[in-house]
């Protein structure tokens, strides 16, 4: 199940990162200030939904990958490892959604 | 080409050292010929394993100059250029019994653990199953069915080297042939047997198994098939 979740979110992230980078390159071509960015993102529901999905995909994808790396390269196994990475996932989710909310509604 | 072939052969178990021999170099001699000549003419205490000598039994695999190979189907001329020496060791990732003979119990136990055996079901079919050769499942099974369990892929696999619990390419390849066997009635147990962190998900797609399989089987693609199948199984 973790494998399927990680591969599915990898697919989402491949698209999301491409859109994210393309948007940055397009948006800053003539120079852009923080105020300009916030003016565009504030109240923009499509922006909030896109980056909300981005953050959720990251929060699922990264901890599973990190768990695989730790299991292969360290003796750390079992429930303590799973709980630590669950906490890491929740941290990514909280920080990411907080950032999305900040540029959408703050 | 020199008339004498220098050979270094592993002696011992996990602990040991290479022992040097020199034997006449002959046209078309195989690596297995070399080992046999050394055991018969130089040191009868040398241990190794072989049976058929013609690439059917899969029992003579060793590490030849750093690469896992069938020794009966490897000519010395193909692996030793000029005056180079021939270096022979036991298969990697197996416990060494003695010299070039390895313990293969764990390897075959993993075939069982991967549910790599046919399950006819509680009540056998009344008639022969018709499995047309052109069906996708039959072709997928055919691609991996000729494995003879020599252990070369298992020796070549780096994932096995760092995770001794990984089922390995041969066992997963066998499981994939059975996943595609439309007659089999043990699919549910097989799914559980191969889908875990020491199962197909652990494969890093290094492709060493595919590179070294002497039968030309591609276990990497069999494992990729299992990974793809996980999505369908997860949706059930």
Describe this structure in words.
The complex is a heterodimer of chains A (106) and B (236). Chain A has helices at residues 2-27, 34-41, 45-73, 78-105. Chain A is an all-alpha fold and 106 residues long. Chain A has a single domain, classed as 3 helical TM bundles of succinate and fumarate reductases. In chain A, helix 1 crosses helix 3 (45-73) and helix 3 (45-73) runs antiparallel to helix 4. The radius of gyration of chain A is 16 Å and the shape is elongated. Chain B is α+β, with helices and mostly antiparallel strands. Chain B folds into 2 domains: 4-102, Beta-grasp domain (Ubiquitin-like (UB roll)); 105-235, Alpha-helical ferredoxin (Fumarate Reductase Iron-sulfur Protein, Chain B, domain 2), CATH 1.10.1060. Chain B is elongated, with a radius of gyration of 20 Å. The chains are: A mainly alpha (106), B alpha+beta (236). The interface between A and B is small, with 8 and 9 residues.
CATH architecture of chain A: Up-down Bundle
Oligomer: heterodimer
**Most extensive chain interface and residues per partner:** A-B, 8 and 9 residues
Main sheet record of chain B? 5 strands, mixed
Count the beta strands of chain A: 0
Total domains of chain B, how many? 2
Main sheet properties of chain A: none
Indicate the proportion of strand residues of chain B. 15-25%
According to CATH, the homologous superfamily of the largest domain in chain B is Alpha-helical ferredoxin
Helix-strand pattern of chain A, N to C?
HHHH
Helix fraction of chain A, binned, reads over 70%
The averaged pLDDT of chain A comes out at 92
Strand order of the biggest β-sheet of chain B: 2-1-5-3-4
Beta-strand content estimate of chain A: under 5%
Strand/helix succession of chain B? EEHEEHEEEHHHHHHHH
